[in-house]
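Example 4.3 (complexes with small molecules)
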Amino acid sequence: MSAKTRIRTALRIAPVVLVVPTLLWVWTRTVSADAPAQRERAGERTATERVARGEYLVSTIGCGDCHSPKIMGPEGPIEDTSRLLSGHPEGTVLGTPPALGSSWIAATSSDLTAWVGPWGISYTFNLTPDENTGIGSWSEETFVQAIKTGRHMGVSRPILPPMPWHFYRNLTDEDLSSIYAYLRSIPPVRNRVPLPVAPEAAFATPAGG
Ligand code: HEC
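Answer. The structure with heme C bound is encoded below.
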């Protein structure tokens, strides 16, 4: 191949050599980079995005304020991260609840996991993925329906105060799925939360759990 032919060949393939990578670069910058945005617009998230969004929602809405056992921090009780979202600790002895009346309608235990009011005593549920005592055996549908209908597991008895399901049911399906995905990703904690106590019994006997 003469020097001239080599130059001519080089000039002929140059556009291909330059254009193909340029097109690929443009494609990755526009089409593929836009894929998450397109999914977001369609309201869909990947599994990882769901867990991250769920963690954000749970930590900002403050599910742990009621659902996590607490330890004492410098500014008062804080979430016990070793038992995150595991509900009212079983075996806690609380004593007889205070008499309520006039404008004081409810009282709570020192860790905010047990509540007493006109509905009796309610204990916050174990939201960790433990198979037997948490939401380990719950499907996403069960979780979403519980929040949307205000019924235990979406089908049975009414969920008692102060669980703010009336507000949480306004979350989008995608956000509820994300909360569920996050809750399924945290360490399971074995903790069997006691059943609620009816109003007639609530003030008569020491509350245990
Ligand atoms: C103000 C306190 C409070 C907050 C905040 C709270 N919960 Fe609850 N939650 C409760 C109580 C109390 C119960 C138990 C009610 C009962 O036994 O009927 C409960 C029960 C539940 C249950 C069990 C429902 C069932 O089917 O039995 C789920 C699931 C739940 N909460 C999820 C959440 C999530 C998710 C958040 C945050 C987005 C949250 N809760 C925030 C108090 C709270």
